[in-house]
Each structure stands twice: as structure tokens, then as C-alpha cells.
What we know:
Associates with the 50S ribosomal subunit. Belongs to the TRAFAC class TrmE-Era-EngA-EngB-Septin-like GTPase superfamily. EngA (Der) GTPase family. This is GTPase Der. GTPase that plays an essential role in the late steps of ribosome biogenesis. The protein is an alpha/beta fold and 162 residues long. It has one domain: 3-Layer(aba) Sandwich (Rossmann fold). The protein is 27% helix and 20% strand. The chain contains four helices and six strands, in the order E-H-E-E-H-E-H-E-E-H. The chain has a six-stranded mixed beta sheet, with helices on both faces. It is globular, with a radius of gyration of 15 Å. The site of magnesium ion has 3 residues, from helix 1.
Amino acid sequence: VLPVIALVGRPNVxxxxxxxxxxxxxxxxxxxxxxxxxxxxxxxxIHDSRRYIVIDTGGIGQDDEDIDxxxxxxxxxxxxxxxxxxxxxxxxxxxxxxxxxxxxxxxRMQQPVHVVVNKSEGQVGVSATAEFHALALGDPWAxxxxxxxxxxxxxxxxxADL
Length: 162
Ligand code: GDP
Ligand code: MG
């Protein structure tokens, strides 16, 4: 059974971009994986010769005030399948109320959660991630899904938990 990593976060933080970077063109192989729904939100990826499944959720934090109930339920189901969860946030926007709402749900889960501060290309040091410590989900990871910055370091940490 392959480990499952779920990507969650508000719209436009870069979940799908990160999903595409992690899975590249390997999505097609997912259909052959037993027990995995043939769904475009599932992808097959490899880190350091270890294969894993990525789930790109679109569901929670749609709106800071009014979270869509059906999307919330779908994402909850995806989270239950996950071995590790990445809460994706946006360094350009900074910490948003929607991030806090999602973090609150994730803190109730058993699985390890990592806060990913995306769109951090060109930013060095702790300044990009400092405010995200407030989510109380450990040290945030500054990455760039579009540039690929620090993605491998993040994955090394994720796999260390598995
Ligand atoms: P999603 O709604 O969370 O799936 O977000 P998307 O993956 O669709 O990305 C939303 C927007 O953010 C798109 O315009 C992406 O090109 C952009 N984006 C994603 N990752 C990065 C990044 O690392 N750096 C920058 N500058 N933009 C990014
Ligand atoms: Mg998306």
C-alpha cells in the first residue's frame, strides 16, 4: 500500500500547481493502482525511489465565512485516506482567516500535518514563514511550486514521518 499525501488549503494558494509538480506526467498510472479512485484529483508520484499517492483537494476554505458543506465533506473523506497532510498557504497573501479555519480542522486529526508556505521563490530566511507559526502546526516550510524551490527538502521531512 502506497503512502497517501493530501494537499489542502484555500483556493489559489497553489495546490494544483504543487500537485502537478509532484506528479508530473505520472497521473496516468494511478488508474492501475488498486483501491484508488480513478479521479483526476489523485496522482502518482515518486520521491527518492519511494512511490506515493497525492490527493489534490479543492474543498475547504472556499470562502472564509461560508464553507461549502459538500466540498467540506469530500475533503474530510480525502483527509481520512491520507497518511500525511500538507496545508498549503500563500506567502504573498500572508496568513488568512481561511488558513486558520482549515488548521483548526487539521489539528484534530491523528495524521502528521505540514504547513507549506507556497509562492516563496526569492525569499530567504524565516521572514516568509514567521506568521504561519500561529497555525500551531509546527515549523512552516517555504517552497515554490512553480520554481521547485525546497520541494525536495519538504518531501524529505514528509517521508521522515511515514
Ligand atoms: P489552487 O487553487 O490552490 O489549486 O491554486 P493553483 O495551483 O491553481 O494556483 C493559483 C495561482 O497561483 C496560479 O496562477 C499559479 O500559477 C500560481 N502559483 C502557484 N504556485 C506558485 C508559486 O510557487 N509561485 C508563484 N509566484 N505563483 C504560484
Ligand atoms: Mg486547484
